[in-house]
């Protein structure tokens, strides 16, 4: 069966070990988590976890079933074929030198990148977008002198209930 | 009125109608033991924490109730892990209480601290670390609920010492119904599909598993099979869910299944699988499993469906509700099996049964283990609760002791835990003191929890151990004979204690039979005793379990021992 990226959205009770249970369930059964995002919802005692993983539809169904079996999991949904909005964010630190400063400034203007802070020797940029947009921006920045990045997992939200 | 944590625990157990617990004390649970001392709760002191969990497990399997045990922190808890994993693999409802160091010390590598909730996360249905006294009552209530609801399983509750010493009002509150509890929804459309499938099938077969026993659906399953004359095979865990003496019963399928059961599976055109999970020991090579059949799978656990075998009609829900629904549906829609093809199918099965019956080569000189089991069956009239260890003893029991009722065959199926049988038998006998409870054992396995003979002796729990002593780790030796050219690497157990004297040293009656002629007398004597007994049967050393499907092969390909391979 064809393997592809899947997005799974999981609602859980906000317990100390709930993430360990989810990671353990998947890891123990040999499934890989490619990206992960966790935070509370509008209700403090309930968190939402969005994770991405690669697999055939059958594998994903199995993952969803395994997750739904966990006592602290309220629901687990495969959002892959559901109309939904996807975002990731990346923070990028660019090295500024007398030689590249001009090129960096130009690129920032041209791409409308958001600079959060900048100093004499670095600029910190924030980019939010879907996976393609972020990949694209990173590819652009690479030659300018990226010293470090942190990229979040993907978050996703269904368009309607 | 405010109660201490230890008082809340005992009160909660009372509310859950727990009448017995199995346990072993230690520093972290001293306060709890002090409370037990002051209470009327029946507590069985085992000799190793693994024994406590297996005993609670045996109790749960025999009664269908939640088994309960209590152990201390650190090594007490880790000793219990094998028991917990055993129960988890077979979906047995247990609540296991472990002591823990005070919350302030957790994470400090305190004396006898271990992260038991971390260790047991993958082998429990759920577990809890109770962090404050206010959560205690509700957590215990929830633990029992989780253990027995849906697909049952073990729940571990870790109790820090300071939480148990703190005080609060007793308030268990209400247990919220969680998402994971799949509730059975009648699905008339699926029932109609199933009826059509039954109508079209010429060679239907029912495959029954542990889920039928867990959901107490043996009666419904039996009704279905008998009413519509559908032959039945079963997994190891399903033994007893359909009467072994019924002509429609084909015995167990799979690696050591009967020839006719495996042939029936391989030739059926409709397989109605209920409460099974299609373990590899059952299916053999998946590609060739039930190749001609449409498969209907009734199971409470959605993650079991399409996991190992792709099915044509999944029905999610507990077996009892689903089968009740199915029976009603078939009745209302006047389903009648087509007489002639059904008769032809049953005759075909009978031909297989006659061609290769389940049997063994009798011997006048040496005791055959199968003969011991058959004699035990005859002498008890089959009316006994049987536990087993793991290995050949377990397979021969499954083959040669015919189980007519559910909850009477008690064995570690999924994990295959040697050392399970004796402590499990103790738990069973505690539940049914007036019934005959027998552990059919191997000499390797019995040595894994032999210390529990002391438990049996202390409380005069009159379990009977039928030791099939072949001086080998028999099942491993069998594989070495068949697949490693008889290189018996580390399986010779000739160096062993004198089991009769060992039994006596424990305060248990020890008996021995070395000749076939002595078997019946020893069994009679052993069964009649009102004390725990160990019967040491010196059996044929290199007997193999047949039929045998070689690992990874189709279950239609069976090695039949002295007979040549029959396809
Ligand atoms: C705790 C544990 N360790 C190892 C095994 C692997 N094993 C399976 S069967 C078996 C041999 C059992 O020997 P014995 O109890 O003498 O029974 P027999 O097969 O001879 O009837 C072994 C070692 C196991 N199932 N459980």
List the helices and strands and how they pair.
The complex is a heterodimer of chains A (161) and B (567).
Chain A: E1 4-13, H1 18-28, E2 35-40, E3 46-55, H2 57-69, E4 73-78, E5 84-95, H3 101-111, E6 114-118, E7 122-129, H4 131-145, E8 146-151, E9 155-158
Antiparallel strand pairs in A: 1-3, 1-4, 2-3, 5-7, 5-8, 5-9, 6-7
Helix pairs in contact in A: 3-4
Chain B: E1 2-4, H1 5-15, E2 20-23, H2 30-37, E3 42-45, H3 49-63, E4 67-71, H4 75-89, E5 94-100, H5 116-120, E6 126-129, H6 133-148, E7 154-160, H7 161-165, E8 167-169, H8 188-200, E9 204-208, H9 210-214, H10 218-228, E10 232-234, E11 249-252, H11 259-267, E12 270-274, H12 280-283, E13 294-299, E14 313-316, H13 319-332, H14 339-355, H15 369-380, E15 385-388, H16 392-400, E16 409-410, H17 421-431, E17 437-442, H18 443-446, H19 452-459, E18 464-469, H20 474-483, H21 499-506, E19 509-513, H22 516-528, E20 533-538
Parallel strand pairs in B: 2-3, 2-4, 4-5, 5-7, 6-7, 9-10, 9-12, 10-11, 12-13, 13-14, 15-16, 15-17, 17-18, 18-20, 19-20
Antiparallel strand pairs in B: 1-8
Compact description:
The complex is a heterodimer of chains A (161) and B (567). Chain A is α+β, with helices and mostly antiparallel strands.
Description:
The complex is a heterodimer of chains A (161) and B (567). In chain A, strands 5, 6, 7, 8 and 9 form a five-stranded antiparallel beta sheet that branches. By secondary structure, chain A is α+β, with helices and mostly antiparallel strands. Chain A is elongated and about 60 Å long. Helices cover 31% and strands 42% of the residues of chain A. Chain A folds into two domains: 4-82, ACT domain (Alpha-Beta Plaits, 2-Layer Sandwich), CATH 3.30.70.260; 85-158, 2-Layer Sandwich (Alpha-Beta Plaits), CATH 3.30.70.1150. Chain A is built from four helices and nine strands; from the N terminus they run E-H-E-E-H-E-E-H-E-E-H-E-E. The model of chain A has no long low-confidence stretch (mean pLDDT 93). In chain A, helix 3 packs antiparallel against helix 4. Chain B contains 22 helices and 20 strands. The interface between A and B is medium-sized, with 19 and 17 residues. The complex binds thiamine diphosphate. Thiamine diphosphate (TPP) is lined by residues 389-393, 416-418, 442-445, 468, 470, 472-476 of chain B.
